[in-house]
Amino acid sequence: MAKDEIFKSEKSIAEDFRFTAQVAEVFDDMLARSVPNYQQVISMSAQILSKFLKPGDTVYDLGCSTGATLLELARQLGELDLKFCGIDNSPAMISKAVLKAEIYSKKEQVRFMEQDITEADISGAGAIILNYTLQFIRPMLRLEFLKKVHRALKPGGVLILSEKIISHDPQLNRAFIDFYYKFKREQGYSEIEISKKREALENVLIPFSSAENRKLLKEAGFSSIEPFFQWFNFSSFVAVK
Ligand code: GEK
Fold first, then answer.
1. How high does pLDDT run on average in the chain?
2. Residue 71 near ligand 1, beta carbon < 6 Å
3. For the chain, where are the E strands, in sequence order?
4. Is 93 a pocket residue for ligand 1 (Cβ < 6 Å)?
């Protein structure tokens, strides 16, 4: 796996973060070292999906990046006869995802589409995964988008939503961010890399609080909503239609 050294160079220019070919190349390493408990959330999601899905159901992953989540879900839920579809608007991410599906011989079961998730046709979904991606959708558009996600699910279908979150309590917010930067240092990122990435994401990744995300899900129409995992400033919800 290529190592993420995007923000290592002293002279890398300050600009807003974008999902370019350079980022896609190192993205699996970036996620593994930047999202705490990434694999655990996927395995917990697989357990939830195995309870709610029926043979023939389709699982959509919106903002699928290089397909890591769907390919792992296809592996863990192999005996359930499910179909998987990943959607992302970064051409470089989708090319990587398609290549990985080929390498793991999963092309029949797992397909990938380059498209904007706010425009994609995802109707009739058994489950929708939206991991660390709603945070990149403009806040004003989030409710409308989640309503579309709700409409697209079959009755009884599930949404898995994972996000970076904030706390409106300044003391706890600061503490959780400090714990997160400690995690990143332990993953081998330097202070410079951490602060450059933070700057690049400043106007691009806009996190809500756990309560705000729950409220959005409720307003979008979901009846049962529960957080199933939280690590300081990262949280995952399951919501049932
Ligand atoms: C994972 N879920 O492995 N339409 C389509 N794709 C989008 C849009 C949009 N409007 N906005 C952002 N993206 C993955 C990780 S990464 C999270 C998701 C992160 C895509 C963008 O191209 C990128 O691949 C993904 O959303 C966000 O669990 O980088 O922090």
1. 93
2. no
3. 58-62, 83-88, 110-114, 125-131, 153-164, 224-231, 234-240
4. yes
